[in-house]
Amino acid sequence: MNIQKSGYLSIEQLTDRYLNPAQRTGTERTTDGLTFEEVLQTKTLQGEEANGLKFSKHAAVRLADRNIELSTKQLERLNEGAKKAKQKGIRDSLVIVDEIAFIVNVPSQTVVTAMDSAQTSENVFTNINGAVII
Question: Which of 83, 107, 113, 126 is least surrounded by Cβ atoms within 10 Å, i.e. has the fewest?
Fold first, then answer.
């Protein structure tokens, strides 16, 4: 007995795919007439233009745990500090903005962790090869 493995589990799935194309998901539109994919791309591009930096999951948790809220101006200055670090060839940078210290992986444009002056009492930072004070 020769069974073909086409990836379909049943005849119903096959007929739904070819005879009912209108039932496919992902083509629904929002009230603005945009698909989910178009909205996602727009939001992603806006986020990249607004900040340029991503926050790792660890950094986001640290910001929340330490009750650190960043203003738009602080985010802009953080982004500026990361750009300066990139221009100088720094890979892992300490960027200090208003007594808040950020460790930024410059090539990936990712904030790895963040701490305020209360957590930096020892003033020891490891695994960096440059610092930018904004």
Answer: 126
Helix, strand, coil distribution of the chain in percent, nearest 5: 40, 20, 40
Question: What does the DSSP 8-state code read for residue 66?
Answer: T
How long, in residues, is the chain? Answer: 134
CA distance 34 to 40: 10
State how far the Cα of 100 lies from the Cα of 120, in Å rounded to an integer: 9
Other Cβ atoms within 10 Å of 90 Cβ, number: 20
pLDDT in tens, 85-124: 999 999 999 999 998 999 999 999 999 999 887 766 677 8
Q: Which residue, among 14, 132, 108, 10, has the nearest Cα to 59 in the 3D structure? A: 108
Q: What is the pLDDT of residues 52-73, one digit of tens each?
A: 889 999 988 888 888 888 888 9
Does residue 55 contact residue 110 with C-beta atoms inside 8 Å? yes
- Alpha-carbon distance of 52 to 19, in angstroms, equals 45
